[in-house]
Amino acid sequence: MNSITIDALNLYYRELNFKIKEAVRKEGIKKVIIKNARGQRFIGTGLKEKDVEIIIESGVPGNDLAMFMDGPTVKVFGNAQDGVGNTMNNGKVFIHGDAGDVICYGMRNGKIFIKGNVGYRVGIHMKEYKDMIPSIVVGGKAGDFFGEYMAGGIGVVLGLNNDDKPIVGRYCATGMHGGVIYIRTEKVPTYLGKEVKVFELNESDKEKLKSLIEEFCQEFKEYKAEDILKSRFIKLIPVSKRPYGRLYSPGNHFPLPEENYFSNKKIDIEKKYY
Amino acid sequence: MKFTFSLKPENFIIERDDERCIRCGACVQQCAYNAHYYLEEKDKVLGINHNCVGDGRCVAICPTNAIRIKQAENPYRPNYNWTKERMMDLYEQAENGTVLLVGMGAPTPHPVYWDKIVLNASQVTNPSIDPLREPMEVKTFLGSKPDKIEVVFDKNHKPEIKTRITPQLELEVPIMFAAMSFGAISLNACKSLAKAASEMGTFWNTGEGGLHKDLYKYGKNTIVQVASGRFGVHVDYLKAGAAVEIKIGQGAKPGIGGHLPGEKVNHEISVTRAMPEGSDAISPAPHHDIYSIEDLRQLIYSIKEATDYEKPVFVKISAVHNVAAIASGIVRAGADAVVIDGIRGGTGAAPKIIRDNVGIPIELAIAVVDERLRKEGIRNHASLIAAGGFRNSADVIKAIALGADAVYIGTAALMTLGCHVCGMCYKGICNWGIATQRDDLTKRLNPEIGAERAKNLLKGWKHEIQEMLGAMGINSIGSLRGNRLNLRAVDIHEPYLSILGIKPAGA
Predict the structure, then answer these.
(1) Which residue of chain A has the CA closest to B269?
(2) B65-115: per-residue pLDDT in tens?
(3) A82: closest chain B residue by CA
């Protein structure tokens, strides 16, 4: 496989991304290895080439890694910053470390696997349409507002590390109106969004979870899928696809006279109108 | 049984000339609000005043002109404070404890400064120009302009511009169609506007609804929007348009998000937005990746990266108290154009209380933003686009003289398609086939005819703008931009005079 190694030290993000795009689009390179990433933003942004791999070997990529990405695979051997997979359309991201806030905002499809912890508002407003089902698996723990406004997709939090933080922060799943969240925990997290209810996993849930966790463990070899799957999970799903349906006034409705909008009694049309 | 304190009094009275009525049933069939019905045993067509929203569909469609719609009087004791509307709203909320929804721009009596600003004309001391006989340039370029242009000569002494010019939008007329999503309006309405824009050499805006597959062909006249819900946003969508607009706010509902109710999310909309049918389409109030000007810069540049720096990026905000400082931040964040939507800006659905009470008039916003950007020496870094209730070409030209580069028209554009500003957009059963997704209603709007009418409006306004420019003795719209000496105020007092930066008439 043809590959290229870019030393990102002292490269401005625009130069670095230009180099990546040139390599992938013009030279047909399938594997881009980046050394010494120094917080350069937008790596992999808008790339559409399906079989391309971007590997960040050392250093930390900047915000909005893989934003609007549509196909490639990105691997980070270290931590990542905010906005990983922002509005991502397809592809895979593996982070061998922690990641920051607002991971996979508005993500439409593809998979994100993070070995460590994530910050606030992760999985916010993920979408789903037919077979486009985005998913995120967090190996560590998640901050507040996990899965906020979630409209679709799958969010998984495994909590595999041993710090004493709660597995998800406060207000998990607030405003959620689609998709599903699986959390590996014995007890229900506090301050759950009032739009969701807690359920036990059924067979199809277990299948979905199994394939995601197997993929997770394939990348992060220190974990064994069987061990993780033995633990107890809870499932969060929204009670309504229309969380705010009743917030607004129905306003006028426009009944025909037979429907009788003056009282519940049937009125005599003749009497009323003549 | 539910007990109600008050019946809703009717807003309109349907008068029917029984002599003229031929019982064709057109009004019965056409009114989605059920304001007409046919009573078979009496062979009569009758009206239900309560259902009438005053959108003029029946009046327009009646083949014998038999229908008159009149405004109903206030049945209650007249009271300046407790008007009929306020009482009705209150009764409704007493019944169901909800937020009142409305459509269209605010009808509130906030002053319309356009009406108090007059234009100049040439008399004796300089000649006016007749646009019918002489060239009159109204072409406008939107985008960031360089501080200086470096020209080099090659060995054949041919000049060449060395400065890299960032991407620009070229407008044949400084009027564009405002962001209205497929969802808020029908596909036929989108098609009408897209076609009109591409034929007139201007632009239409997708709103936050993605780009329907039938509309990709109008791509080079399309501004694609990225809003907080990120509906239908992907690389191909960003690249399909001529420019990308980040929507932060909307004049009708500054600071709040949008909810497209699940019942409007039909198959086509669910495909375009890539979301399940029947699910609420919720746009959060903020973009959750933008909590600061620095974050905005990040989103602007992520879009530029994704589009390979080939498209200008606009940022749309609603006109609020600190609009000048915010606009300055937006320009410094790297936006190629700032769009400002004033308090009279329209909407498909917004809480009434927000629409009528939040934001500032667009006239004041244009004036302060232009002034601030000039003072900071960054006015050339971004274009300024104004929106919010533009009614005619005079409003447009006054906005340009105050400092705008171009304007967006929304309500005015829909009116060319038949909209009668009844304000029922949020009900989703628009009789004119505009603010609805019901097949039997949307087919009433023929996109070919719609495009022709929208085009006619732009043609008429373009010509009027040329006439007004000619009268002022100016032959290019660029010479009028920010040229406030051509404006005078009638009956505007301090401090608004100095905010607008114009002299009182006579001075």
Answers:
(1) A129
(2) 999 999 998 888 999 999 999 988 998 888 888 889 899 999 999 999 999
(3) B289
CA torsion B172→B177→B183→B185, rounded to 10°?
A: -110
Number of Cβ within a 10 Å radius of residue A125? 31
Pick the CATH number of A82-244 from 3.30.930.10, 3.20.20.300, 3.40.640.10, 2.160.20.60: 2.160.20.60
Q: List pLDDT tens digits, range A231-270.
A: 999 999 998 877 776 777 766 667 666 654 443 444 444 4
Asked if B348 contacts B435 with a C-beta cutoff of 8 angstroms, the reply is: yes
Interface check A254 vs B, CB under 8 A: yes
The full 3-state SS of B293-346, as one line of letters, equals HHHHHHHHHHHHHHCCCCCCEEEEEECCCCHHHHHHHHHHCCCCEEEEECCCCC
- The Cβ of residue B268 has, within 10 Å, a number of other Cβ atoms equal to 18
Confidence (pLDDT) at A248: 76
How many helices (H) and strands (E) are present in chain B, helices listed first?
16, 23
Contacts of A17 in chain B (CB under 8 A): 305
Give how many domains chain B has, as a whole number: 2
Q: Which domain holds residue B443?
A: 171-504
Whether residue B140 is contained in a domain is answered as: no
Res B139: pLDDT: 96
What ipTM did this prediction achieve? 0.90
What pLDDT shows up at residue A251?
64
